[in-house]
Amino acid sequence: MTPNNFLGLPDEHSNAHSASVLILPIPFEATVSYGAGTRHGPEAIIQASQQVELYDREFGGEPAPGYGVHTLPALQLAGDPAEAVDQIAQATAMAARSGKLVVGLGGEHTISVGFGRGVLDALGGPLTIVQIDAHSDLRDEYEDSSYSHACIARRLLEMDGIEQVLQLGIRSVCQEEVEFVRHNPGRVRVWYSEQVHAGDWRSEFIERIRGRRVYLTIDVDGLDPAIVPATGTPEPDGLTWAETLDILRTLTQCHGGGA
Ligand SMILES: [Mn+2]
Q1: Is the bond preceding 126 in cis, omega lying within 30 degrees of 0?
Q2: Residues 6+ apart with CB under 8 A from 66
Q3: Based on the domain organization, do 192 and 216 belong to the same domain?
Q4: Nearest to 254 by CA among 131, 163, 130
Q5: Ligand 1 center to residue 125 CA distance, Å?
Q6: For the chain, which residues score pLDDT lower than 70?
């Protein structure tokens, strides 16, 4: 029987002691505004991961068993977003203090506020956020909640130690967000989807991440809904799979460490 962990790895490649990657399932759902089901996300990703070939054509081998990937127990979260964000921050900080690479699986995008705070608590700043998303998430408040999934980049930018947020694949913004970006050019940089399609992001992106520690957050709606239809807030003209991999490759080749 396949072990029920990320990628379905046997104990020798998935025990907490020797693994160099930790998967933290964060099944949070409290502020979704349209389609629902984010609380089932982590378990669905783990189930699907067990169908993936371990052989990676790009690396010419099986990198995951080599690194060792340990799946932590799913967090049991409070329904109140502020309380849940505190719990996520504590669990992330504990995982990040191990020195291993920590990957959080959501859950709605609000989890990134707790995850970012946890990374800062464990490792300190300065930290750059790279956000792949259809939405800027820069509202101060949405549907009476400052912890809404629509506000996560704004909450992250308020934390001491968050140097800048770099957003790629954005298609949907409001007036308030456009003005916020215009007034904070040093701390927020947006590359809209058409700019990524045109290759218009690379040089400045590299310039902004070179040597910096990075927390990468991926909202699945950043990719085109033809690739990831199972999102609560689909927007047309998203990033292709190849563009997304190009961004991830560029990031891993240029940054200076992170989560
Ligand atoms: Mn989004």
Answers
A1: yes
A2: none
A3: yes
A4: 130
A5: 25
A6: 256-259
210 and 232 both lie in a single domain? yes
Q: How far is the CA of 239 from the centre of ligand 1 (A)?
A: 12
Asked if residue 230 and residue 131 are part of one domain, the reply reads yes
* For ion ligand 1, residues whose CB falls within 5 Å: 133-135, 219, 221
Task: Give the end of a domain, one of 86, 102, 124.
Answer: 124
pLDDT digits (tens, 9 = 90+) for 70-126: 999 999 999 899 999 999 999 999 999 999 999 999 989 999 999 999 999 999 999
pTM over 0.90: yes
Q: Which residue has the tokens 């259809």?
A: 134
Rounded to the nearest angstrom, the distance between the alpha carbon of 169 and the centre of ligand 1 is: 10
Domain boundary among 124, 145, 164: 124
Total count of domains within the chain: 2
Please report, for the domain that includes residue 64, its CATH number: 3.40.800.10
Q: What is the pLDDT of residue 32?
A: 81
- Same domain? For 131 and 253 the reply is yes
Instruction: Report d(CA 77, CA 174) in Å as an integer.
Output: 30
List the domain range (segments joined by +) for residue 49.
1-124
